[in-house]
Amino acid sequence: MFGWLSWQWIHQWSSPQKFYRVSLIWARILGVLGVCGLLVAWVWGLAFAPEDYLQGNSYRIIFVHVPSASASMAVYLSMAIMAVVSLVWRIKLADMVARQCITIGMSLTALALVSGAIWGKPTWGTYWVWDARLTSMLIQFFLFVGLWAIHNAIDDKKLADKAAAIVVLVGVVNLPIIKYSVEWWNTLHQPATIRITRETTMSMEMLIPLLLSMAATYLCVATLVIYRTRLEILYRERKTRWVQDELNGWEKA
Fold first, then answer.
1. Which residues are CB-neighbours of 40 under 8 A, at least 6 positions away?
2. Pfam families per the record (predicted)?
3. Residues 139 and 71: beta-carbon distance below 8 Å
4. What's the CA angle centered on 5, arms 4 and 9, to 5 degrees?
């Protein structure tokens, strides 16, 4: 009985109308926490964290590069989960969330590539090398571009959602390559800075603002996904009675 109630609860909260009704307050809370967290993390990391004994001040871009790279992979993984939910259980909210993750993930991946190139110049002496980590991250960027192109090329929303979901699931194999490429191959890219299985060599004065920046970036990404999904819901459900009532309420206000 508990399992049936749980499944009923999932279906209830996966309704576009229900999501739209309750998501605004969460978006506002997450947005405030995310922006405040980023401001604290960036000021702390860029102004007060000590210099690195090898890289000097050039390492400070880590407070932008690592969170953006990590968040871009999390966005893609979230899209893969939404793809499974859409294809197996036909929950249309999953398609809406996945659709709005695309440009966010594309932007985060681009930021990770650009910030990594800026970091690579003083560290490696060049902006780009065909390193396994860099190449797999570039592939992720092209996957996002391809998904964006699918949605813009196919007018039928259901067909576009299904095609994009299949591409997402095919491309998800790239995530472990990005993650473990520095361990599987001899690469220029340094190993992961933070690992659960072993103690980090980074000082706490650097580690705390980095972790704060990562957490705040995730909160900001969640906020953007919620806001963009709300707009997607209004667009796709624009012919329904509840959306018409919502828009009429805006006009009266």
1. 209, 212, 216
2. Cytochrom_C_asm
3. no
4. 120
The answer to whether residues 121 and 127 touch, using CB atoms and an 8 Å cutoff, is yes
Calculate helix-pair angle for 204-236, 241-252, nearest 10 degrees: 100
Distance CA 150, CA 136 (A): 21
Name the DSSP class of 52: B
3-state secondary structure (DSSP) of residue 56: strand
What tokens were used for 47? 């102004």
Whole-model pTM: value is: 0.92
Check residue 2 and give its pLDDT: 47
Q: How far is CA 201 from the centre of its chain?
A: 27
- The two structure tokens encoding residue 84: 């499974």
Half-sphere exposure of 184 (CA within 13 A, CB side): 10
The CB-based long-range contact list for 1-7 (8 Å cut-off, 24+ gap) reads none
Measure the N-to-C terminal CA separation of the chain; round to a whole number of Å.
44
Cα dist. 16→157, 161, 170 in Å? 16, 16, 27
52 DSSP β-pair partners: 56
**What one-character DSSP code corresponds to residue 239?**
T
Report the alpha-carbon distance of residue 235 to residue 217 in Å, rounded. Answer: 27
What sections of 90-131 are H helices per DSSP?
Answer: 92-124
